[in-house]
Design a protein that fits this description.
alpha/beta, globular, Arc Repressor Mutant, subunit A, 5 domains, Rossmann fold, 6-stranded parallel sheet, single chain, 17 strands
Length: about 725
Amino acid sequence: MSFKTPTYQLKEALKNYFGFDQFKGSQQQIIENVLEGRNTFVLMPTGGGKSLCYQLPSLILPGTSIIVSPLIALMKNQVDAVRGFSQTGQVAHFLNSSLTKAEISQVKSDVLSGQTKMLYVAPESLTKKENIDFLAAVPISFFAIDEAHCISEWGHDFRPEYRRLREIFEKISSVPIIALTATATPKVQHDIQKNLNMLDADVFKSSFNRDNLYYEIRPKREVEKQIIRYVKQHEGQSGIIYCLSRKKVEEIAELLQVNGINALPYHAGLDANTRARHQDAFLMEEVEVIVATIAFGMGIDKPDVRYVIHHDIPKSIESYYQETGRAGRDGGIGECVAFYSYKDIEKLEKFLQGKAVTEQEIGRQLLHEIVSYAETSVCRRKFILHYFGEEFSSANCQEKCDNCKHPQERMEGSQYLSLLLQALVQLDQTQKSKHYCAFLSGHLNADIKAYKHDQLSLFAVGKDHDEHFWNAVIRQAVVAGYLYKDVESFGTLKLTPKGSAFMQQPESFMLFKQHDFSDTDDDIIVSQKGTALDEVLFTQLLELRRKVAKQAGVPPFVVFQEPSLQDMCLQYPIDMNELTAIQGVGAGKAQRYGSEFISHIASYVETNQIERPQDFVVKSLINKSGAKVQLIQNIDRKLPLEDIAKSQGKSFDELLWELETVVNSGTKLNIAYYLNDVLDADDQDDIISYFMQADSDDLIDAYHEFDGLFTEEELRLVRIRFLSEYGN
């Protein structure tokens, strides 16, 4: 059925139903297309007004529109919003597993009576025969598929049940389809249209640029402290913190709460009532922060979210784009801060194990892209838009990403680009990035040997630079358009016409120095504004440490380790309470060695008029303190360390790390009962004598000093005893 609605009538309907005077972007053309009965494909960024594109036609056309939506929270939110615009609650309903039999009966009654113009349905509900039979007897205006990227295996949130939608639609009614998504690469777009048999659809693609968002990637160091500081500096503003696991969501929410921040968790492990209550509390501004897995946020229409923080880097650029898109939907400022460590990528890669080969390849390719994004020094906005097939000049970013605000050094890189393109040609454009990095840098790995590529003339031609460098050249060459990654072959590099032209006639190619994330997850805190370490104070504290150590007759590292001194140079503690909040400093160590340090820092702060982050004393979670107490009690009871590790669900290595943390913070642990069973007393004395004279407590140095006589584990155990006896 086709409806031609004059423009003035459409605007009247917009004003009448939704209270808006003007359409946004391409909304009017999309709505006209739907009203004319044509298949429609909509690519529109989060906050662009996608939902109006099917809601307004639903209200104008006769019959009921079927809107497929992936999440119960999303359906509830949208139904509530539509009912808010209407005089009757029957205008919109949802049909999913959260409803009782009586509620389902009421929904069907309202649909049959013609009062319901929009029926939101979960794809799982559509597969049920009774629902298919029911809908087949109802006048349907059109089908809408929200979050249509779920159809594609190449999408970031693939759902197998979405692949069956076309066959189910055909059983119900032969009416037009409108598919909508906020995140789709050209490959995903084609996959969606092909699956829905709507390659004839009119495509409406809005710009993916959200010019009010600021993008920043930070190394994942002391991430919990950084998050607390950030949230406190944005007090009174709404924010979302995304974590990959439910456990981490609970931990971060609790950590925020004990530090005086009004926050709630949201994940699929909570019961439906709790999830709904937490979501409503956030929407109603009863809480400032929601800590969530990706289950939260799809379709949540809270316009004034001022920041989105990713505790863990997402598993694809699509996920990242969609989740950051929750910020600044009112056009106001939205800050998007993500913490990145390659260790998180390795964890995500492990999750792919056991899946089908194709799914693993796709997953790795998506992970490779998010790694490229995180580590790049190119304008982040340009990188994201390039990924979605949109050209963008970084000059238009206007310092709305960290790379444009704090640009890295640049150098002439045409010779490196030339070598890279020559390597592609020599290897017949058959390999992925990793292989070319090894090939050019001269890394003789198993694949290079298997293909006998080490026998080619260009092997190791770029050996003056490592694989990290060549990876940077590849990333920047892709963004600049000299190469592209062939999606069908899971990321094989291919030349573009621009790349071929460069080989014929080389031109200037400015290369950015890449970020180095090799030292993430260490003990050094990065301040909110990227504040550099106070080098002057650090030098003074090193000298003071030498003096105190000499007086105590112990090596300097026993007094305070360098990460603790570095943290002091960021936090400027001036009393014992503040000193115990410093990384690696417990009450015992503070009492034993701290007085001269806080006295020196207090004098330094006053002399130099330092503005201290005094609001930044992070309280630990009670359960973590409880675990520490339990650990100490178990050692006091002289339980075997293997049994302690097993009872706490830890590996032996993890237990040793925890013991080291405890003694480094100033608590005594007597593990002699265990140590005496694994190492004789003379050997222990030799190792302790070594540490007493050593410049550092580095295990590698100790291992070489004893010519490998002792294992790393034995050295760690003795070091724990040494630090406990002489440091605490």
